[in-house]
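Hey, resending since the last one bounced:
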Amino acid sequence: MDRFVVISGCSGGGKSTLLLELARRGYAVVEEPGRRIVEQELAGDGAALPWTNGAAFARRAIDMALADRSSAASRDSRDGWVFFDRGLIDAAAALEHFAGTPALTSLGAAHRYHRRVFMTPPWPEIYASDSERRHGFEEAVAEFQRLTQVYPALGYEMVIIPKSTVELRADCVLRHLQT
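The structure tokens again:
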């Protein structure tokens, strides 16, 4: 859907903070599937945590991203942009990385987002691990590099969001969507 906009990029690069700013400005946002899954898994048996079973985690992320898209599609299109903190393409890329299971081509073609995807670059000054993000900065950069190959291969135009204040980053995203 052309009104579905993905904010992707480097883990710990400020995606969630940017989404909070877009929500503050009145836009619909969808939280990152990965964070929600980790929270659920930590409260449960932990069978699908990315650091214990990456493939199971990625499969859950795909299911959650599809459900998120379905839920967002039921909203009135006059409500405007819907911003996704990651989404289906990121989840399919994770499944290919963790399990070698090809998922990108079929899912990427069947479930399109806006033609521009916004990428937060690696930003070591703001990167932080926590109980839900246990991987290091090097792994985050490797993931960013994979995603910067995946999105253009699926026909998306990438816009690298500058390292700046969250307000200026949100302005940048909205400005690029006007063209």
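The helical segments are 15-24, 33-43, 54-73, 88-99, 104-110, 137-153, 166-177.

Sorry for the duplicate.
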